[in-house]
Amino acid sequence: MARILVVEDDDAVRSFTSRALIRDGHDVLMAEDGEIAIETVREHNGRFDLVLSDIRMPVVDGIELAWLVGREFPQLPILLMTGYAEQREQAADLRDIIIDVLPKPFELKDLRAYVSSALEERKAA
After folding, report:
1. CA distance 120 to 112
2. Could you tell me the maximum CA-CA distance found in the chain, to the nearest angstrom?
3. 28, 4 contact by CB (below 8 A)
4. CA 62, 67, 70, 71 torsion: positive or negative?
5. Among 5, 20, 119, 125, which is most exposed with the fewest C-beta within 10 angstroms?
6. Cα torsion for 42, 17, 3, 100, to the nearest 10°?
7. Which residues contact 78 (CB under 8 A, 6 or more apart)?
8. pTM for this entry
9. What is the pLDDT along the chain (125 residues), one digit of tens a residue?
10. Contact 52/66 with Cβ under 8 angstroms?
11. What 3 state SS string does 79-100 have?
């Protein structure tokens, strides 16, 4: 299946999300903040099928992560997630870089649908 980097500072959400994606057959790497995620993407030379990142995180947030990764690896799809309406509005400025924003809290079916859609969009590009 796909190689996905899950970026989330909340241990419970990161664990739930990663386990669900692994159960669906994906190869999942995890990072607990945007700074670690940027290092991970660079170490792997952008060889991910998707970056799934929270927006609100310490150190480097998901918006900055999307800008940096999108500029360095423009072919790498980025799907953001947040529970805050104002952050969804901020992410609108990233229309050319990100695929979508998954609203939190989400159910397993929502996670699967958004990830599936993001991966399909990547194949179509």
Report:
1. 12
2. 33
3. yes
4. negative
5. 125
6. -80
7. 50, 51, 53, 65, 66, 69, 70, 94, 97, 98, 99
8. 0.94
9. 899 999 999 999 999 999 999 999 999 999 999 999 999 999 999 999 999 999 999 889 999 999 999 999 999 999 999 987 666 676 667 788 899 999 999 999 999 999 999 999 877 76
10. no
11. EEEECCHHHHHHHHHHCCCCCE
**Does residue 34 contact residue 66 with C-beta atoms inside 8 Å?**
no
- Give the pLDDT score at 76: 95
Per residue, the 3-state secondary structure of the chain, as one string, reads: CCEEEEECCCHHHHHHHHHHHHHCCCEEEEECCHHHHHHHHHHCCCCCCEEEEECCCCCCCHHHHHHHHHHHCCCCCEEEEECCHHHHHHHHHHCCCCCEEEECCCCHHHHHHHHHHHHHHHHHC
CA-based nearest residue to 81, from 97, 101, 95 = 101
Query: Under 8 Å CB-to-CB from 82, ≥6 apart: which residues?
Result: 54, 55, 56, 62, 88, 91, 101, 102, 103, 104
